[in-house]
Amino acid sequence: MNEKLLKALQEQLNAEAYSAYLYFSMASWFESENLTGMAHWMKVQAKEELEHAERFYNFINARRQKVNLLPIDGPKTEWSSPLEAFEDAFKHEQVVSKRIHDLLALAIEVKDYPTQEFLQWFVKEQVEEEAAAESIVRKLQLVGDSKNALFMLDHALGERGE
Ligand code: FEO
Domains of the chain, with CATH numbers? Predict the structure, then answer.
């Protein structure tokens, strides 16, 4: 397998693990604010990110290459408001989408067809990931300073399925 592509796949596994860490950190901050519905939403998101990391793990293995786990950066731990946290989540997903697109461009450049096929799932997933985060950002903008509306949105986000 092309070495540069293998390195990029390993780095994306790490980026997905970092995403899980970031969302667990956001969950923890929401818990500290007693916004347990939003904390639940973030924990479900964090678990999804671990599944994304595992997809890279499994794919690298399936290609008979060795997974080398890289250190995970420490995430931010404090946010000034729920809006700021979800804005960060949305921005983070945009960064992840760009990473996936760059990875796909590299797989095309080195003519690695299995990796191109593997990444298609992530291209689609990122459209959903960005839309989900952006939708909550817009809801929080509508909520503004209303405590009632924030309470209702927190409750609604607590209903997210696993
Ligand atoms: Fe694994 Fe949220 O991207």
Answer: 3-68+82-157 (1.20.1260.10)
